Automatic annotation (TrEMBL):
<feature type="binding site">
    <location>
        <position position="294"/>
    </location>
    <ligand>
        <name>S-adenosyl-L-methionine</name>
    </ligand>
</feature>
<dbReference type="InterPro" id="IPR029063">
    <property type="entry name" value="SAM-dependent_MTases_sf"/>
</dbReference>
<keyword id="KW-0949">S-adenosyl-L-methionine</keyword>
<feature type="binding site">
    <location>
        <position position="340"/>
    </location>
    <ligand>
        <name>S-adenosyl-L-methionine</name>
    </ligand>
</feature>
<dbReference type="Pfam" id="PF01938">
    <property type="entry name" value="TRAM"/>
</dbReference>
<keyword id="KW-0808">Transferase</keyword>
<feature type="binding site">
    <location>
        <position position="270"/>
    </location>
    <ligand>
        <name>S-adenosyl-L-methionine</name>
    </ligand>
</feature>
<protein>
    <submittedName>
        <fullName>23S rRNA methyltransferase</fullName>
    </submittedName>
</protein>
<dbReference type="InterPro" id="IPR012340">
    <property type="entry name" value="NA-bd_OB-fold"/>
</dbReference>
<dbReference type="GO" id="GO:0008168">
    <property type="term" value="F:methyltransferase activity"/>
</dbReference>
<feature type="binding site">
    <location>
        <position position="241"/>
    </location>
    <ligand>
        <name>S-adenosyl-L-methionine</name>
    </ligand>
</feature>
<dbReference type="InterPro" id="IPR002792">
    <property type="entry name" value="TRAM_dom"/>
</dbReference>
<keyword id="KW-0489">Methyltransferase</keyword>
<dbReference type="Pfam" id="PF05958">
    <property type="entry name" value="tRNA_U5-meth_tr"/>
</dbReference>
<dbReference type="InterPro" id="IPR010280">
    <property type="entry name" value="U5_MeTrfase_fam"/>
</dbReference>
<feature type="active site" description="Nucleophile">
    <location>
        <position position="367"/>
    </location>
</feature>
<comment type="similarity">
    <text>Belongs to the class I-like SAM-binding methyltransferase superfamily. RNA M5U methyltransferase family.</text>
</comment>
Amino acid sequence: MLVELEVGPVAHGGHCVARHEGRVVFVRHTLPGERVRARLTDDGPDARFWRADAVEVLEASPDRVPSVWPEAGPGGVGGGELAHVALPAQRAWKEAVLAEQLRHLARLDVTPTVHAAPGDDARGGLAWRTRIDLVADADGRAGMRGFRSHDVVALDAMPLATEHVAALDLLGRRWRPGARIEAVAPADGSPPLVLVDDVPFDLQRGRPDPRPNARAAVREVVTAADGVSRTYRVAAAGFWQVHREAPTLLVDAVLRGAGDVAGGTVLDLYAGAGLFTLPLADAVGEAGHVVSVEGDERAVRDARRNLHDRPQVDLHAGDVARTLAGLVEGAPPVDVVVLDPPRTGAGRKVVDAVAALRPERVVYVACDPAALARDVALLGAHGWTGVEVVGHDLFPMTHHLEAVAVLTR
Ligand SMILES: C[S@@+](CC[C@H](N)C(=O)[O-])C[C@H]1O[C@@H](n2cnc3c(N)ncnc32)[C@H](O)[C@@H]1O
C-alpha cells in the first residue's frame, strides 16, 4: 500500500520516523523534513509500529544527493541505507543516533562528534571496504542477498570496495551457483586473498590455490599515534576491521583513551587477532602486563602469532565472561580495561566482572550505539560516570558507525 508521509527525525538502523493514522512508521530511503510517497512493507494490524520504503520524494531535503548504491533490481540489496545522504549529513545523522541512544538508554546528556576517516571525503565516502562477501546467483553472477530476503541480487558495481578489491573483477566472472566468495585486500597493497566456499582460490588460474600462505593470512601494517609500524597476520576469513583506515584510527583512539600505562596492567577483552593487544603491550613495556582474551579459535591462532615476541602478554583463549570470572579472584590491580565486543555488546555479566576489577579507566570500542549505551548504563551504576564518547564514521553510506567511549570513576 502507498501512503504519503511527513518525515520526522532519524532513528537507529538507517530509518527516519514518521506517523500514519496514529501509528509510528520507520521509513527507509528518506531524510528528516522530507515529504515522500512510501510503500508500507510491514503493516500488520497488530504491529506496534510499521515499516515503509520511500518510493517517491515529493519534497526533498537539501541534504539529499543522487544515491551511489548499485541499482540492483526490485527491492535492491541490503546496506547502503544512507547512500542518498550528503556525507556531512550522514555524520550529523549518526551523531543524532548516538546521542539519542546514550540519552535514552544511559540517561547521558552528551552530543558526541562523529568524525570522517582520513581520505573518505576526498573519495566521496567510497572505496573504503577492504573486505567483500558475495554469493553467486542461479546464473553464477556474484551478488548480495536482497534486503530482508534470501534471494541473491547480482551486482553491477561495488562502490564501497577499495581499488584493490575492485581490481579483482569478481563481478565480471561466473561462479558456481550458490558459491560464497570472500575477498580480502589489505590497504597496504599486499596481494589480495580470495576464498570460494572457504577454500583459497587462484583467480588467474581459475582454480583452488594450494599454496599454504593463500589460506593463511593477510598482512596489515598499522602506523599508530606512537609512530610505530606493526605487522599483523590475519586469516583471510578471520575478523579484521573492514575500513582501510580503521586499524590505525582505532589503535590511536585506544592508546589515547588508555593514557599513560607504562609499567601497568591492561586487559584487552574481545581481542581478535591482537590489533590493540600489540600496541598496548608496547605501551605498558616489559615491566607491564597485558591480559588479552579472545574466544574464536582462528583469531586466537593469529593472535598467538602476532604476539609471540611480547612476553608481557598473557593470551587467554575462551569466553570473556568465563575468563573474567576466573581472573577476578586474587587478580593483581588492573589499570585499564579495553573492550571491543561484538554488535550485541558486553552485557551485564562482563560489565559486573570488569567493575569488580576496579580499573582506573574503561576504554569501550563499540560498533553498535544501542549496545554501547546499555553497557555504559551498567558501568554508570558501578560508579563509572565520567564518560567521553567520540564517533568515527568507519562505514560511510551505511547506518553503521564506530564509537570509542572512555569511562572514568
Ligand atoms: C568486534 S571484534 C574486535 C576484535 C579486535 N579488537 C579488533 O579490533 O580487531 C570482536 C571479537 O570478539 C570475539 N568474541 C565475541 N564474543 C566473544 C566472547 N563471548 N568471548 C570471547 N571473545 C568473543 C570475536 O571472535 C571477535 O574477534
